[in-house]
DNA sequence: CATCCTTTGAAGTCG
DNA sequence: CGACTTCAAAGGATG
């Protein structure tokens, strides 16, 4: 480790997190001692990081300096081992396949560092990859084929655990990529970019002989830009232009090498390690920049694929066009001019959670058969908390890279720009101003077990009353529900909690398919209570009143994953702390969780809770809680 | 059709 | 410096 941080070089995550993990440095050593395999990866990773950092330094020293040590490092705490093990044992549910099926790549990414010459990987690293690679374990026929495929030196990286989830949806085939030359596909594991994890590679995707159905059939409704068929898993980070067909819809896809650009060949990933944008990369990037943002000489990439972050006023312009035609024109013209004048809207880089959401949304949708984003997001939020630090670290790193890249791409850009744009344009929704009192109230209760937990669905039930009573009985709705706000009824009323879960909860939380999760709502008179009680423990509770999102602070500080913390705190609360007492500072988050009734049970062993991933729920746990962190007693 | 909802995190503004 | 606000994605729901 030392390198991971490189003295703070790698700034994975949010500062908060970094801070929280700060004192965990020594643990790295420990880890290194104990976790050989991991260590190998870590080493590789760290080395990569260093490289990237080094490179980066050239381009952006200041940033690197100011950034705190990588969260990843911090993540290596003592608990991790246990967590990992637990995770392994418990995988079950949400993420089918390996404990964190999608995450096996976690470490791999670094291996892909462009900076590593082919074959530069240490045997260890390779070994690790193989061991870790989910596909290999699962050994799907396709994956094997892929492996065998001479053309793909190491298809393994291509194969993702996720493939299992969406079989038959292979849109892209590795071969195709290769053959088509559209994308310089890199087959070597080490070529896999760290960000690759976001790409849910599926065997099917790359199965030879699995020609992409129709690469161009799909058109992005919003952008109107044709895009290649997408895998549910694969959330295209950005819309691809027609020319991008065959590209892997990576979240960072826009950066994905196009048309076999030499520079990127060998890189599956756009960011050659984002950390470092070398000269060639620079040129590449620059090519994609909007002229105004980029040094003058730049223009869109030859592919014509705009940077994902750039939202051209196309849509608006179009509308304006029509308007112009219909309406008067001076005004419109001027408007139009303004718009034109207006630079394309450059979006904020996605943060870690957003990246995670992008990646996982499809899965959740598939599992839960939910479509409502609000509900899905709740689930994702829980899952996010359920993730191990390492897993989260992956996303933090991605986010960091994303930010860096964004920074490089749009040197002058500031989030403020978007603020202003919206304000001026008034387009954006005026953020709901929550009534202080109102909002807080909800939030405070929010923590209610019912809500908090997986069944959180309750939480998710902003429309609880609606769901329960239906539109016909709006008179029965609680005020907030009428206002489309969070339902307070269930929050406060415990009894109701139970019921709702079944209704919405089931939808949200329980993956239909998974038997384990499916469980027993009925059977569990006990289970239900259990879950409810446990729920408070759930990680999710974010203090409502504390918009602050720093749940990790404590977590980090206390290593235990978020859930555990919550649990602890809850238990403490249960012990008799008054909510207020618990409230201060760090505990603020938890405060929310305190709810009458929520209590006691909470106890679930924190650790267990922390370890548990939703899926691994105990059979008793109510089915609807797959997502929840509820725990299964691991023992 | 615009906005809400919902999540976390980053970054902005404000006092 | 802390508290608060906006925005990023997403898509159904709502007015």
From TrEMBL:
Would I find Nucleus among this entry's keywords?
Answer: yes
In which broad location class does this protein mainly occur, judging by the first location in its UniProt entry?
nucleus
What InterPro entries does the annotation carry? Answer: Catenin-bd_sf, CTNNB1-bd_N, HMG_box_dom, HMG_box_dom_sf, TCF/LEF
Q: Which GO terms describe its cellular component?
A: beta-catenin-TCF complex; catenin-TCF7L2 complex; chromatin
Alphabetical list of SMART domains matching this protein? c-clamp (SM01366), HMG (SM00398)
Annotated Gene3D superfamilies:
High mobility group box domain, TCF3-CBD (Catenin binding domain)
Listed Polar residues bias regions: 47-61, 617-635
Annotated localization:
Nucleus
State the Gene Ontology BP annotations. canonical Wnt signaling pathway; cell proliferation in dorsal spinal cord; endothelial cell fate specification; heart development; midbrain development; positive regulation of cell population proliferation; rostrocaudal neural tube patterning
Q: Does the keyword section mention DNA-binding?
A: yes
Residue span, HMG box domain:
346-414
Query: Ranges of Low complexity compositional bias?
Result: 498-524
Q: Name the Gene Ontology molecular function terms of this record.
A: DNA-binding transcription factor activity, RNA polymerase II-specific; RNA polymerase II cis-regulatory region sequence-specific DNA binding
Q: Which residues form a coiled coil?
A: none
Q: Compositional bias of type Gly residues: which residue ranges?
A: 1-11
| Pfam name, any one | CTNNB1_binding
Which keywords annotate this record? Activator, DNA-binding, Nucleus, Repressor, Transcription, Transcription regulation, Wnt signaling pathway
User: Which residue stretches does the UniProt record annotate as biased composition, category Basic and acidic residues?
Assistant: 19-43, 63-91, 330-341, 434-445
Query: So which domain of life are we looking at?
Result: Eukaryota
Q: Which family does it belong to?
A: Belongs to the TCF/LEF family.
Q: What is this protein called?
A: Transcription factor 7-like 2 isoform X1
Which species is listed as the source?
A: Salvelinus namaycush (Lake trout)
This protein's gene is called LOC120046309
């Amino acid at each position: 480790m030392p390198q991971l941080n490189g003295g703070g070089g790698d700034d994975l995550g949010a500062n908060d997190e970094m801070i929280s993990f700060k004192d965990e440095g020594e643990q790295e050593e420990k880890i290194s001692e104990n976790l050989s395999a991991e260590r190998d990866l870590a080493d590789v990773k760290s080395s990569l990081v260093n490289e990237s950092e080094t490179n980066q330094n050239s381009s952006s020293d200041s940033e690197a300096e100011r950034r705190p040590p990588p969260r990843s490092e911090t993540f290596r705490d003592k608990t991790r081992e246990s967590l990992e093990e637990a995770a392994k044992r418990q995988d079950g549910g949400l993420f089918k396949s390996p404990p964190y099926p999608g995450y096996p790549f976690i470490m791999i990414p670094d291996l892909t560092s462009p900076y590593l010459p082919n074959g530069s990987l240490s045997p260890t690293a390779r070994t690790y990859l193989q061991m870790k690679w989910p596909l290999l374990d699962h050994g799907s026929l396709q994956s094997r084929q892929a492996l065998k495929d001479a053309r793909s030196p190491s298809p393994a990286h291509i194969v993702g655990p996720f493939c299992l989830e969406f079989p038959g949806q292979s849109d892209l085939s590795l071969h195709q990529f290769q053959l088509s030359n559209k994308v310089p596909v890199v087959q070597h594991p080490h070529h896999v970019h760290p960000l690759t994890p976001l790409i849910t590679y599926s065997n099917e995707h790359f199965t030879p002989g699995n020609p992409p159905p129709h690469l161009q059939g799909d058109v992005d409704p919003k952008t109107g830009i044709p895009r290649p068929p997408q895998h549910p898993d694969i959330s295209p980070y950005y819309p691809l232009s027609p020319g991008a067909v065959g590209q892997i819809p990576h979240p960072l896809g826009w950066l994905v090498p196009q048309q076999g650009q030499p520079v990127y060949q060998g890189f599956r990933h756009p960011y050659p390690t984002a950390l470092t944008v070398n000269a060639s990369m620079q040129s590449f990037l620059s090519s994609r920049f909007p002229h105004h943002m980029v040094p003058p000489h730049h223009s869109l990439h030859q592919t014509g694929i705009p940077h994902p972050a750039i939202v051209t006023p196309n849509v608006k312009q179009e509308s304006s066009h029509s308007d112009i035609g219909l309406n008067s024109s001076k005004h419109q013209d001027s408007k139009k001019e303004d718009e034109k004048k207006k630079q394309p809207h450059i979006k904020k880089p996605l943060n870690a959670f957003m990246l995670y959401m992008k990646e996982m949304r499809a899965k959740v949708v598939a599992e839960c058969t939910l479509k409502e984003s609000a509900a899905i997001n709740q689930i994702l939020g829980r899952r996010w908390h359920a993730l191990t630090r390492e897993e989260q670290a992956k996303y933090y790193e991605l986010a960091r890279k994303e930010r860096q890249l964004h920074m490089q791409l749009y040197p002058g850009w500031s989030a403020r720009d978007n603020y202003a744009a919206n304000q001026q344009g008034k387009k954006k929704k005026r953020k709901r101003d929550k009534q202080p009192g109102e909002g807080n109230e909800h939030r405070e209760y929010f923590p209610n077990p019912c809500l908090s937990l997986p069944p959180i669905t309750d939480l998710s039930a902003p429309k609880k009353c609606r769901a329960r009573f239906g539109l016909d009985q709006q008179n029965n709705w609680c005020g907030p529900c009428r206002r489309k706000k969070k339902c307070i009824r269930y929050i406060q009323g415990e009894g109701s909690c139970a019921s709702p879960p079944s209704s919405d909860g089931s939808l949200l939380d329980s993956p239909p398919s998974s038997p384990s999760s499916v469980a027993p709502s009925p059977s569990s008179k006990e289970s239900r209570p259990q879950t409810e009680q446990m729920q408070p423990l759930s990680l999710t509770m974010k203090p409502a009143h504390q918009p602050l999102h720093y749940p990790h602070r404590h977590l980090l500080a206390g290593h235990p994953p978020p859930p555990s913390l919550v649990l602890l705190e809850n238990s403490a609360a249960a012990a008799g702390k008054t909510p207020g007492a618990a409230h201060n500072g760090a505990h603020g988050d938890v405060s929310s969780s305190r709810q009458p009734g929520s209590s006691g049970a909470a106890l679930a062993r924190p650790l267990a809770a922390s370890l548990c991933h939703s899926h691994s729920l105990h059979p008793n746990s109510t089915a609807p809680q797959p997502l929840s962190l509820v725990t299964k007693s691991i023992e």
